[in-house]
Amino acid sequence: MHLQRTQQYLRSISSFVKHRIPLAQALNTRIKHHSTTSTSHPASSHLPLANTTALITGASRGIGLAIAHLFAANGATLVLVSRNVATLAGVLDGLPSPFFPPDPAFTSNSSLASHAPDGYSEDASSAHQAPDSRNNSSARHQILTGDVGSPTFWAVLKQRKLNIELLVNAAGVTHASPLFVTGTQCLEEVVRTNLMGTMLGCRVVGRGMLRGGGCIINVASLLGLKGGTGSAVYAASKAGVIGLTRALAAEVGKSGIRVNVIIPGYIETDMTAGMTPAAREEALKSIPLGRFGDASEIADAALFLATNRYANNCVINLDGGLSAT
Ligand SMILES: NC(=O)c1ccc[n+]([C@@H]2O[C@H](COP(=O)([O-])OP(=O)(O)OC[C@H]3O[C@@H](n4cnc5c(N)ncnc54)[C@H](OP(=O)(O)O)[C@@H]3O)[C@@H](O)[C@H]2O)c1
After folding, report:
1. Which of 20 and 71 is assigned the larger pLDDT?
2. Which of 35, 45, 148, 188 would you call most buried, defined as having the most Cβ atoms within 10 angstroms of its Cβ?
């Protein structure tokens, strides 16, 4: 199994390098043009997230992926987290350079799925307890695979002593079922991933920010405020994330750590792709803007929170007006 994983790594690294060469050449051309030996484009140092390292959980798909693209385009160095190394390797491959805008196609989950070798999920499950990292050959971004709900994952991350100034807790799962028929295992998975994962991330990465300040952005859900049939467990976990954000914003603001939360309504991602046509129709009827949001619209809010130095305890609803109905 170990050998198999190593081979998979080498294959994905060689495909990564293969794709990166033209970009590296373009970069060299520009550097020469500006007569500098610096390894980054001169213009990139003026980007809002230049010299900032951001850890993003749930970066393999949907909202976390959109945030990763926008942050990378704005100069951040990224640490990408999810449970699936192959998917993250594909994400790494598609990240924009700091001085190029994000590719609009990145929000398409199907295009990303094509990066993942078949049958990898079995291998990914074995990576839960031991984060696995790989440096990007352009020396900027890296990936870490593991389960955010596992204290071991965060303990291993802590040992790596990464200097993270920006944390986005976007990893999340949902199970739509009435509480009385929801099994304990399912209940635990939702609470462990959504609430414990966010809390552990805040504790480990936030403590590291005590050195020089930083910003934490949590992703909750409108269901955490409003409730909804079949969402008791998910709603409870997300209400917890909102409470956690508020308390932490008061607790660590004086240390220069800003803590904020985004509250999305319905967003077009894998998470909503499984809705029945009837449920989708019903949801659309109650959204004043008449559509689901795009993951890039949540990423815009994350960039605002990351860069606005007075943003602390911000609770940003992005739901097309659903919360008003
Ligand atoms: N889409 C919506 O309508 C909506 C609305 C409100 C709130 N939200 C919230 O927004 C966040 C992002 O959701 P999304 O719509 O982008 O969902 P998504 O497309 O299903 O992506 C979920 C992400 O979380 C990661 N993840 C799940 N469990 C994990 C675990 N235990 N450890 C590490 N990573 C894990 C997944 O990665 P792997 O599977 O590769 O591990 C994936 O990257 C979630 O917190 C969700 O609750 C979404």
Report:
1. 71
2. 148
Contact 51, 74 (CB under 8 A): no
Is 234 known to be catalytic?
Answer: yes
Nearest CA, atom 11, ligand 1: 170
Count Cβ atoms below 10 Å from residue 108 Cβ, excluding itself: 12
Q: Which residues of 291-319 are buried (b: 16+ CB within 10 A; e: fewer)?
A: ebbbbbbbbebbbebbeeeebbebebbbb
Instruction: Report residue 240 as tokens.
Output: 């917890």
Does residue 201's CB lie within 6 angstroms of at least one atom of ligand 1?
Answer: no
Kindly give the interhelix angle for 197-208 and 232-252, rounded to the nearest 10 degrees: 20
Whether 69 contacts 108, CB under 8 Å: no
The tokens describing 212, both together, are 């020089």
Centre of ligand 1 from the C-alpha of residue 22, in Å: 32
Q: What is the pLDDT of residue 104?
A: 58
Average pLDDT score over residue span 106-122:
29
Rounded to two decimals, the pTM is: 0.82
- Contact indicator for 95, 71 with CB cutoff of 8 Å: no
Amino acid letter for position 325: T
Q: Is 50 exceeded by the pLDDT of residue 131?
A: no
CB of 149 closer than 6 angstroms to any ligand 1 atom: yes
- Catalytic hit among 9, 120, 234, 310: 234
Each residue's pLDDT tens digit, 261-275? 999 999 999 999 999
**From the CB of 272, is ligand 1 less than 6 Å away?**
yes
Q: Which domains does the chain have, with CATH numbers?
A: 47-324 (3.40.50.720)
pLDDT at 321 over 50: yes
Bridge partners of residue 304, in order along the sequence: none
